[in-house]
Design a protein that fits this description.
about 160 residues, mainly alpha, Ferritin
Length: about 160
Amino acid sequence: MPVKGLKDNAIKTSIETLNATLADLVALRLALKQAHWNVKGRNFIAIHELFDAVFDRVGEGADTVAERVQILGGVAMGTAEVVAGKAKMAPYPTDAVEDARHVEEISTRLADVGGRVRKAIETVAETGDEGTVDIFVGLSRQIDKDLWFIESHLGK
């Protein structure tokens, strides 16, 4: 049953925005695992473990997003087919090996997803769905922190 007190258009906008974010988060997790499995270089262990930790945190965010879709009365759309069609992320390069390349690739994707999450905050805030806004704010904060951790390996 949808949240009482929210207008139908707010619920519809929130569900659509949450599902778009869910697709991005699932795609980001796959990119993180690809990097985690294939990274090589002088900083292997630090980066390998960092990618795994970020993978876990992105998964927690995806779970929170999917649960909010359910709370609002929608269907969480996280299948491989949906993610392949909806995620706004460039394909991850399968030829990447060196740690610096993986760090750059993941950094770019985290920054892109972070930007879309900030846009989601604005979109949902206009509808008055403060519960969903709060989820996006927390997600934005975590992505920014993870991006900082990863970009630190690039000297940024």
